C-alpha cells in the first residue's frame, strides 16, 4: 500500500455521480436490488444480484440524474439498500444519501468518536473510513482505516450503537469491507508498516475477527500458531475460527517501500514484489471436463492468480498476468465463469 503514502487528494470537492436515469420504459423507483456491501453474501461477488436494467445494450442510454458533493474524494463503492446509499468520504464523514434524488439523509463525522487519526496518509489529518460499509439489518457497520476501529450506527439516523477497537498497534488499519452473515460481522486487519524503515519494521500481527453485530465483543483475542501462515490462503470454520486447511503460496512475508530500491542496505534479493492478497477471494462453481468443481480464486498484489479446491485446499491451477509491485486488484469473471479478468 505504498501508494497511500503521499496520496494526492484533489483540492476541489469531488462528486458522487449516480447514473440512474435510463431512457427506457422502466420503473425508476425500484431499488429492490440491494447492494449491501462489496462482498455479495459469502461468495466474494461484487455486483448487485437483482439488477437487470443496466446492460451492454442499455448503458448507452444512461444520463446523469443527480450529483452529490462530498467534502473530499469518494473511493469506496456505496452500499445500496432500500433506496439509500451509504458511503464514506476522505473528509472523515460517512453519508446516507437518497438514491432517487441525491438528497442527504444523515452524515456522521468520525471525529466525534473522540479518537485521533493515525496520520499515515499525507494531506489527511482526520479519521477516515475507506471501505464500503456493511448493512446488518437495521445497522450500518463501518471499519475505520486508522485506528482500527469497527463501529455500528443506526441505518435510519447514523446514531452510534457500539464501537470496538480491534488492535492497538500504531499503524494498524481496516481497509477491507466486512461481511455480515447470520448475525455476525467478519473483517480483517492490516497495517502500513511498509512505510517504515527496515530498522523499524516489523511488529504487526494480522488478524481476522468475528464480531456479534448487535454488541461489542466479549471474548478475548486469540492468537493461533505464529509465523506459519504468511502469504497463505486459509479456510476457517465460520463458527469457531479454527483453520480447516491452508496453502502457503510463497513470497516474502514482509514487503516495504524502502526495498523498491534493491540497493538499499538490508533488503533481500529481488525482485521485490508484494506477495500479499489485497482483496477477498471469490468462490465459484466451474465444470472441468464435465466434472463440477467448487473452487476459490484469489489474486496476489504481485500479479499471481490461484485457484484451489475450496473443500480441501488442493491447487487446481495458477497463472500470472505480469509481475507487478503491489497493484493487482480484485478478479472479475464473466457470467458463465469461463473467463477471469484481473
How are the SSEs ordered, and which strands pair?
Blueprint: E1 15-18, E2 21-22, E3 62-63, E4 66-69, E5 79-81, E6 84-88, E7 93-98, E8 104-109, E9 134-136, E10 139-143, E11 149-154, E12 160-165, E13 172-173, E14 179-181, E15 184-188, E16 190-191, E17 208-212, E18 232-236, E19 243-248, E20 282-288, E21 291-299, E22 304-309, E23 315-320, E24 332-333, E25 340-341
Antiparallel strand pairs: 1-4, 2-3, 5-6, 6-7, 7-8, 9-10, 10-11, 11-12, 13-16, 14-15, 15-17, 18-19, 20-21, 21-22, 22-23, 24-25
Strand order of the largest sheet: 5-6-7-8
Quick one: overall form? globular
* Strand portion: 25-35%
Instruction: Let me know the number of strands.
Output: 25
Low-confidence stretches: 1-13, 18-33
Mean pLDDT: 77
Tell me the helix content. Answer: under 10%
- Distance from first to last alpha carbon: 18 Å
GO molecular function, one term: oxidoreductase activity
Domain Pyrrolo-quinoline quinone repeat: 66-191, 227-319
InterPro entries: PQQ_b-propeller_rpt, PQQ_rpt_dom, Quinoprotein_ADH-like_sf
Signal peptide: 1-25
